[in-house]
Specification:
The protein is 40% helix and 21% strand. It has one domain (65-239): 3-Layer(aba) Sandwich (Rossmann fold), CATH 3.40.50.150. The protein is globular and about 55 Å long. α1 packs across α2 and α1 packs parallel to α3 (52-64). Strands 3-2-1-4-5-7-6 form a seven-stranded mixed sheet, sandwiched between helices. The protein has helices at 3-17, 24-40, 52-64, 66-69, 89-95, 108-120, 133-137, 157-164, 183-188, 190-195, 236-239; strands spanning 77-81, 100-104, 126-129, 146-152, 168-178, 198-207, 214-222. α8 links the parallel β4 (146-152) and β5 (168-178).
């Protein structure tokens, strides 16, 4: 079976196992996305995961796991912080086309790739912004604007909270996508999350289809406004976490 056939079979079966229905048109979009990712990865360092089975599980299904933890529906505004090659933001958009998605990526070449994906897949209601999270979250027009903010393996939770919570609107959710055993990070980040106006509501655990790898989605609800002094200037959250 060729690579596209492998991708289609794994993605369809895995989505079914997760209770997520993908239409024929959505499957077509995922195949095109895979083709673009594989071709551009020859020139750009987008991902070390490039075989069809691994992409289907570790990128596409992993991204769609967010849908099991908290609703993503209607014209919700979604921000994907440090999206890289578009995960989880683009798979979420393919699966929930009404979402209004902003992809935040600081590296110019990766941002260029994301623009190409958006054009080739004819995705409406998606924008790419090339900026660092600290600069974006404190900027006018973006602060406390988003219903959902997602981030996948960008930094430790104590740092991620300062990158992401300023952009979440009150009663919205920040979804931090983590691997196995996130309890230490959650405890370490407790003070920061509270200071930034959030509260950990739930840790949603699942195992990825086929591999059984542990995933934990830390759901942080925004319960009050983030103080205006956050996020601190570029580099400070990483050097001196709250």
């Amino acid at each position: 079976m060729n690579q596209l056939g492998v991708l289609t079979g794994i993605l369809k079966a895995g989505a079914d196992e997760m209770g997520i229905y993908l239409t024929a048109e959505q499957m077509k979009s995922f195949r095109l996305y895979f083709d673009l990712l594989r071709e551009e990865n020859k020139h750009l360092n987008l991902t070390t995961v490039i075989k069809a089975k691994e992409v289907a599980i570790k990128h596409f299904l992993d991204s769609l796991s967010c849908l099991r933890a908290v609703p993503f529906e209607g014209r919700m505004k979604v921000l994907d912080v440090g999206t890289g090659a578009g995960f989880p933001g683009i798979p979420l958009k393919i699966c929930r086309p009404e979402l209004m998605v902003t992809l935040l990526e600081s590296i110019e070449k990766k941002a260029g790739f994301l623009g190409k994906v958006i054009r080739e897949l004819h995705l409406a209601g998606v924008e790419v912004i090339r900026a660092r999270a600290e600069d974006f979250g404190g900027g006018k027009g973006h602060r406390e604007e988003f219903d959902r903010v997602v981030a996948r393996a960008v930094a430790r939770l104590s740092v991620l909270a300062e990158y992401c919570l300023p952009a979440v609107k009150e009663r919205g959710f920040f979804v931090a996508m983590k691997g196995a055993a996130p309890e230490g990070e959650i405890e370490e980040a407790g003070k920061a999350i509270m200071e930034l106006g959030g509260v950990v509501k739930e840790v949603f655990h699942l195992n990825l289809p086929f591999t059984g790898e542990d995933r934990n989605l830390v759901l942080i609800e925004k319960v009050r406004p983030t103080p205006l002094r956050y996020p601190r200037r570029t580099g400070i959250p990483l050097k001196r976490p709250l």
